[in-house]
Amino acid sequence: MNKLTVVNIGGFGHTDAVFRDLAGMQEAELIGLAPAYQGEDISKFLKLEPAVGKKVYDDYKQMLRELKPDVAIISTRLDLIPLLIMDAADAGCHVIAEKPLALDMAMLEKVCRSVERNKINLMAMLTMRSDPQFVAARQVYDSGAIGEAVLVNARKSYKWGTRPDWFGDKDKYAGTIMWVGIHAFDYINYITGLGFTKIAAMQGNFAHSERPACEDNCALVAELGNGGHATISVDYCRPEIAKTHGDDWIRIVGTKGVLEASGSKSECSVISNDKDSFRYPLPEEKDKIFTRFLLNILDGKSNSEIAQVSFMLTKVCLIAREAAQKNKVLNIE
Amino acid sequence: MNKLTVVNIGGFGHTDAVFRDLAGMQEAELIGLAPAYQGEDISKFLKLEPAVGKKVYDDYKQMLRELKPDVAIISTRLDLIPLLIMDAADAGCHVIAEKPLALDMAMLEKVCRSVERNKINLMAMLTMRSDPQFVAARQVYDSGAIGEAVLVNARKSYKWGTRPDWFGDKDKYAGTIMWVGIHAFDYINYITGLGFTKIAAMQGNFAHSERPACEDNCALVAELGNGGHATISVDYCRPEIAKTHGDDWIRIVGTKGVLEASGSKSECSVISNDKDSFRYPLPEEKDKIFTRFLLNILDGKSNSEIAQVSFMLTKVCLIAREAAQKNKVLNIE
């Protein structure tokens, strides 16, 4: 059996989620790591199981040349992500990259063309669609218990904690809609299958002026592909004493019922006109979305759906950010 | 002691909430009832305690002339409310009226001028600010436990049940933002003291096409007076099997903590960096907001604050509805 060879570029973001899947796989192996830019600290990833004892490079381009890996994990300062994706794609690597895939529309199109030209598989780190409460919510939705989605409310709420300096720089941090809000769009889409056709957004930095580019509160409304609507709330003001870092939540009002799924409460509760009120049991583990991506590559199966979703969500968030900046309701083609 | 004399005009809306306060008062008495328009069924109000055995008129104008009441309760088809307020004001009556106070801005200004010219006290039926969970939330907010509001999420969710025919007529039903959404704006304002400076809204009729003017889902975002933001979600799709008619809820993310108050769960829960996590006890009864309004009249005290809030909220909702109709983000002066 061919074993997929994997490298990691960068020291920021959710590489740990990919490593968790990788640690459980025989079919793929991490063979090298490198920072994305000179001076980037990658030490926290080096301590994680699949990385221990693996070769560390100073220069990721050299690593790509020498190791010729099948797959590159890219997870670093947000402005560098699109450049690294294109470098990896040109080196013939499939890519698992942090989101967003680009910080503006022109760059997103360049990334898209590079992925197509090099015929590589690409997946953004849409980690929330592996979370048990959202997997449960999708199972409930797919069962028809709440009918078709009419109105959706989604929330992302994080502790502020410690944020890198570059979170304060608009050219390096993409904005909170792009970095955090994208997850809410993702789990709305993941659970209901619906896209987004229109958007309005407001955002501000209320209590964290030491990182001026980092909005700590965002409020959004979107029209869904079926004509329903959604509200999305994003904040960095979760109290530090809270039991979990995040308070991720969704409520879906359907034609036959309502579901609520909460990460911080580890639950998915349903009121259904057809099926009464019930708690839906959560899967015991996160869904192994990165394992599936890697096995598909090995088996020659398509990963095009997740690539399409990754580009679509980045685009939606770019338009949402523009809507907030321009104070306009914008259509999403 | 002078006893305030009160009449009720109309057969639709939340007169029952006013009657509940009235039933407990020695200082005021209901002395007559009339429909607002020919053929209006007022029978359900006639069965309520303060109304039993009281004089019933066919024509409210005749009632106002004959009984010369101190106060008129006005609660009927929404398009008639502003006209009735002006009739009652011209008859020298103080007014407790259903919301919204008008269906367009020109009429709202006429109502405002009439109230000022006749020097009457006016209060809209902002019944939610009497609900125990929101009174508790205000006490928590006033205590400083969660700091200053950064991001607010509010929800109004109702069962569809049976709706009058005129809910399907845009000239008679003001729209769901006006009829239901106004409560969410009200309790945001009531708890935080903040007004609204900018708004975007989306709305639709998804599953109730038999009442085309009645949007069954609305999604709104607003900028708050302090620069924070809010999302508001309104739907008429609460499952009929749910235990309560409504699912009214607010979450306030503050600079020091988060509170959530739920009507359907009868609870107010807090996570505060200063004061840890706790459930705040709810008052046992609804706050007697109408009693206070009536006693103020009797005692010659001011009711101007609630009049101002009633007009402000109607205006905010008119602008929100316009924002939805025009697909624009609108400022609120």
Describe this structure in words.
By secondary structure, the first copy, chain A, is of the alpha/beta class. Chain A is 32% helix and 26% strand. Chain A has 2 domains: 4-120, NAD(P)-binding Rossmann-like Domain (Rossmann fold), CATH 3.40.50.720; 131-285 and 318-331, Dihydrodipicolinate Reductase, domain 2, CATH 3.30.360. The first copy, chain A, contains 9 helices and 15 strands. The first copy, chain A, starts with a strand and ends with a strand. The model of chain A has no long low-confidence stretch (mean pLDDT 97). Chains A and B meet through strand 7, strand 8, strand 9, strand 10 and strand 11 of A and strand 7, strand 8, strand 9, strand 10 and strand 11 of B.
Multimer state: homodimer
Domains of chain A (count): 2
Structural class of chain A: alpha/beta
- In percent, how helical is the residue content of chain A? 25-40%
* First-last Cα distance of chain A: 43 Å
CATH architecture of the largest domain in chain A: 2-Layer Sandwich
